[in-house]
Specification:
Layout lengths: L23 E2 L2 E3 L6 E4 L1 H15 L21 H11 L2 H7 L1 H5 L4 H23 L1 H5 L3 H4 L1 H4 L1 H33 L6 H16 L3 H26 L11 H20 L18 H28 L6 H18 L6 H15 L3 H18 L8 H18 L4 H30 L20 H16 L9 H6 L9 H24 L2
Antiparallel strand pairs: 1-2, 2-3
Length: about 525
């Protein structure tokens, strides 16, 4: 019997199922008629042994290869709710909520309205993207090849790879911030980062099924802990009044850009976690479970972050001191003070549990970054996804240790920057689906064939125009675009990047893509 796994240097069931079967792939030579393996190089044998070990330890062997129907499971779409809820019910999301009062100088009610309105908008793209997973059996950054073409897609996969490393860094620091406070400052912050990162690395590198198993439970435990934090902290929360005038408008729009950036950053990996579902899974179910998992978890937990940050404006100076010395972790610990030693120790236990809430989100970063590496080069597909997840996860941990003392600065800059390229990128993918591939008209067998994929000229040109326009409209501490400066008061202006980038992309892409299809037939 043919051992199909001997050719998995390229991917499960993909090489030997070709018609005709591949003669030689990455050191594995097969008979072109029968598909029998007749020769395997030493490198190929090492690859086979590695993949055998991966199977034995229960990790996912597949990479970016399309998941055929026979390998699908009866996975319930509600797994998408638990996945995204677990990824967001934690300290990283809570820390993000503090940005409203601390960096954009918003009060309680204007922060509330921003979180409600912009989270609804931001949760739509990843929920829509998730519906493509069961229908196509392809990962998100593979699907973009049907818009951007084979070669430009590699560049965008590289950008997405950097995003996942950056998110792994941000989220690990957020968890370590809490763990640092639990240790009363005696546990070095670098060690706290290392502990959180290693736990996430072990879970994330094992792949799709282990990630889903972990996420089904994590959100429940963390939700209980956050409810306890809210209960103890409620009496300290302050109704900080909202501002008015141009400064208030600028703060609202800038915070809104950050919120949308936080949400839509899930879109480039949203389909990754639905590829094993049956293709006849109802798209509306996939959409609703994903949307609700994202929206409610982020809205409610971010609102708790806003409440925690308002304590700094209260009459008790201990909260300001705690924040200045230990950041968000210090605020979380301070709400348990004043009740006695037993309550404070209980609070430390809650904080310790919460510090590991970021594991649920970092494992998604680690898993998907391994897939993005394989998208960059066919040669990189020779190395199993697990190995790339291990290497990339290690890189994220090192970056987190280096930037561990600047959480808010990292979050503000990083979250806004990723929104600048994601808005035109996602708009192009959705316009392709709505206008040119309605009814999921994708030739999924062409996912790896440059000759059968679009050239991507329309997509990459419009993407560059939209991204440049977004940069001109950006308002950051390190750069304020000329358009943003004209819209708002100097020196910071008003960030309107995603609004204009979205509008221009919609106007330009449809006619450009129509012309490309007419001229090339792809």
């Amino acid at each position: 019997m043919t051992d199909r796994r001997l050719s998995l240097e390229k991917g499960p069931e993909e090489v030997l199922n070709q018609d005709p079967p591949a003669k030689e792939v990455y050191g594995v030579q097969t008979d072109t008629t029968t598909g029998e393996v007749v020769f395997a190089s030493k490198a190929a044998n090492y690859g086979v042994k590695l993949r055998s070990w991966i199977r034995n330890v229960g990790a996912e062997e597949n990479g970016i290869e399309r998941i055929p129907e026979e390998l699908r499971t009866n996975q319930n779409p509600r797994d998408l709710f638990t996945l995204w809820a677990s990824a967001n019910v934690g300290t990283a999301t809570m820390a993000f909520g503090t940005l409203g009062p601390s960096l954009f100088y918003l009060g309680w009610w204007d922060s509330f309205c921003c979180l409600l309105f912009f989270n609804i908008i931001g949760a739509l793209p990843p929920a829509l993207m998730a519906t493509l997973g069961p229908k196509l059996g392809l990962r998100t950054m593979t699907i973009q090849r049907f818009s951007f073409g084979y070669w430009p897609a590699k560049f965008l996969a590289f950008i997405c790879l950097l995003n996942q490393i950056g998110w792994g860094m941000v989220n690990t620091i957020a968890g370590a911030d809490i763990l640092y406070d639990v240790g009363d400052g005696n546990l070095p912050s670098s060690v706290a980062v290392l502990i959180i990162g290693l736990v996430a690395l072990v879970v994330g590198m094992f792949g799709y099924h282990r990630v889903h198993q972990y996420e089904r439970v994590s959100w429940i435990v963390m939700l209980v802990c956050l409810i306890i934090v809210a209960g103890f902290g409620a009496k300290h929360f302050v109704n900080v009044p909202m501002g008015s005038g141009p400064d208030e408008l600028s703060g609202v729009l800038s915070f809104g850009t950050s919120i949308i950036g936080f949400q839509i950053s899930w879109a480039p990996i949203a389909a990754d976690y639905a590829v094993y579902m049956r293709s006849n899974t109802k798209p509306w179910k996939v959409f609703m479970y994903t949307f609700n998992g994202l929206f409610w978890s982020q809205f409610l937990v971010e609102l708790l972050g806003v409440g925690l940050m308002t304590t700094v404006s209260g009459s008790d100076p201990a909260f300001l001191d705690a924040y200045n010395s230990r950041g968000v972790g210090g605020l979380t610990g301070q709400i348990f003070e004043g009740y006695g030693t037993e309550v404070r120790n209980f609070g430390k236990f809650i904080q310790a549990v919460l510090s590991f809430s970021v594991v649920a989100v970092v494992i998604t970063n680690i898993y998907s970054l391994g897939l993005n590496v394989q998208m960059i080069s066919t040669g990189l597909m020779r190395v199993p996804r697990l190995v790339w997840s291990l290497i990339g996860g290690g890189g994220a941990i090192i970056a987190a240790i280096a930037g561990r003392d600047r959480l808010q600065e990292v979050m503000e800059d990083f979250l806004n920057v990723i929104a600048y390229w994601l808005t035109p990128f996602l708009a192009i993918m959705f316009l392709e689906q709505i206008c040119f591939r309605r009814g999921y008209q994708y030739d999924v067998t062409a996912w790896q064939d440059p000759k059968r994929l679009p050239y991507g000229i329309a997509a990459i040109v419009v993407f560059c125009i939209g991204t440049v326009l977004a940069i001109l409209c950006m308002s950051q501490t390190w750069y304020v675009g000329p358009i943003a400066l004209k819209v708002g008061n100097p020196p910071y202006g008003t960030d309107i990047s995603w609004e204009l980038a979205l509008g221009v992309t919609i106007v330009l892409y449809v006619p450009a893509r129509w012309l490309e299809r007419r001229l090339t037939g792809l």
